[in-house]
Inverse folding.
C-alpha cells in the first residue's frame, strides 16, 4: 500500500498498485465504496493484465484517512486523487470511475489534463440535484449531525449487504459531506465539463438504469455511450466481461 499527504493536517490518501506497462489505469470508486473491492477482479482479467493499475481510496473511504475538517466536495476529492497520482509519478492515465468516482474523474480531467488521457465512466453522476431516489440525495436530505448520529446506522441495515460491506468502512461524516458535494455538483456542472474535454471518453450505462439523459448530445461531442446488457448500477459485477472490454477499448 502507498500513501500521500493531501491536506495541511497531514492526512493521507492511500492506494494499492499493480506494476505494469504505462499508461497506468487508475480506478476510482463510488460513494461509500472502495476501489479494489469494485475493480481488482476487472484489472486481473487476461485482456487487461500487464498494465500498471492503481486502486485509489478517496478521503474518508476505505483505507484512506478521515479528516473531520475536510470538505469532501468533488473538487476536494479530485485534488486528493491528483496528489496520489503526482506522488505515484502517474501522467496521462486512463481513469476508470464508477458513480461518484466518475464525477470526480471528470473534475480531475478538467483541472489536471496532464494526468488524464482517457476516461471510462460507469454510471457516473453528470448533473446536480439528482432525484430523491438517488443514494446521494437520500443521504444529503439529512442534516449532517442527524445523519452521523442516527441515520448512518439505519442506512447500513437497509442498503443491502454488498454496499453495506464497504459503507461501514466509510466515515459517516465523510459519507454525508461527499453525498452533499455530489448532490450539489461541480461548477460548471460535470456534464458540461465532460462535453468540453478533448480526451477519449466512454460512458457505460447499465441496461436496467434506462436511457441515459442527454445521450444524443454526449455522442455528438464525441462521448462513446455504451448500454451494457444485463447490468444495473454496478456494471463491473453484473457484466464483468462487457466492463473489461470497455476498459480495454475493444467493446
Amino acid at each position: 500500500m502507498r500513501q500521500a499527504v493531501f491536506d495541511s493536517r497531514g492526512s493521507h490518501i492511500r492506494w494499492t498498485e499493480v506494476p505494469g506497462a504505462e499508461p497506468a489505469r487508475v480506478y476510482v470508486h463510488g460513494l461509500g465504496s472502495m476501489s479494489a473491492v469494485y475493480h481488482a477482479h476487472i484489472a486481473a482479467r487476461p485482456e487487461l493484465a500487464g498494465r500498471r493499475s492503481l486502486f485509489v481510496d478517496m478521503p474518508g473511504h476505505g483505507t484512506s484517512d478521515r479528516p473531520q475538517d475536510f470538505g469532501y466536495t468533488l473538487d476536494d476529492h479530485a485534488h486528493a486523487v491528483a496528489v496520489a497520482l503526482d506522488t505515484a509519478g502517474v501522467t496521462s492515465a486512463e481513469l476508470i470511475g464508477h458513480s461518484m468516482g466518475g464525477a470526480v474523474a471528470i473534475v480531475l480531467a478538467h483541472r489536471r489534463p496532464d494526468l488524464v488521457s482517457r476516461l471510462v465512466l460507469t454510471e457516473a453522476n453528470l448533473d446536480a440535484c439528482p432525484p430523491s431516489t438517488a443514494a446521494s440525495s437520500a443521504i444529503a436530505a439529512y442534516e449532517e449531525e442527524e445523519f452521523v448520529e442516527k441515520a448512518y446506522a439505519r442506512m447500513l441495515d437497509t442498503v443491502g449487504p454488498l454496499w453495506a460491506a464497504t459503507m461501514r468502512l466509510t466515515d459517516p461524516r465523510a459519507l454525508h459531506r461527499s453525498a452533499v458535494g455530489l448532490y450539489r455538483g461541480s461548477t460548471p456542472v460535470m456534464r458540461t465539463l465532460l462535453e468540453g474535454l478533448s480526451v477519449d471518453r466512454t460512458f457505460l450505462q447499465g441496461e436496467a438504469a434506462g436511457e441515459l439523459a442527454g445521450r444524443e448530445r454526449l455522442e455528438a461531442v464525441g462521448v462513446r455511450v455504451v448500454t451494457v446488457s444485463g447490468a444495473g448500477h454496478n456494471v463491473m459485477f453484473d457484466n464483468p466481461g462487457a466492463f473489461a472490454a470497455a476498459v480495454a477499448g475493444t467493446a
